[in-house]
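Researcher: I need the complex structure. Ligand is adenosine-3',5'-cyclic-monophosphate. Inputs:
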Amino acid sequence: MATNRTFTMLKPDAVEKGHIGAILEKISASGFRIVAMKLTQMTKADAETFYAIHKERPFFTDLVQYMTRGPIVAAILEKDNAVEDFRTLIGATNPADAAEGTIRKMYAESISENAVHGSDSDENAAIEGAFHFSGREQF
Ligand code: CMP
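Model: Output:
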């Protein structure tokens, strides 16, 4: 059953470039309610666990280095059809393939530094949200 919640991270490149406000504005204007949110920095162990599904991929070491090099904004978002609608809002993994007006088209540099994360399923949204937030941090 759809939970209508998804999990996102504004990644270190987006934070470094000062895009937090613009991206949150776009998320809010697209009808998502913020359930939980914080500025935080992942440790190497955090990133290796969070991205364990990619550990055999050739880009894994670079991905861990990228995701730990500075702060991120982690958030749980709520909306009808949240997972699918958020992935539409952020656009394709590679910003070169992302549709006009999507967050990655507007703010991402490359397939590796792509500004924002969005969960790919309800199951992963719940796992990823619980990785970053306790129940008491969700409203
Ligand atoms: P995301 O889809 O949020 O989670 C996995 C991340 O791995 C992805 O964003 C990119 O940051 C990175 N990634 C995915 N595919 C590639 C690739 N082909 N080369 C480099 N990095 C990638």
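Model: Summary of the prediction. Residues 54, 59, 63, 93, 111-112, 114, 117 surround adenosine-3',5'-cyclic-monophosphate (CB under 6 Å).
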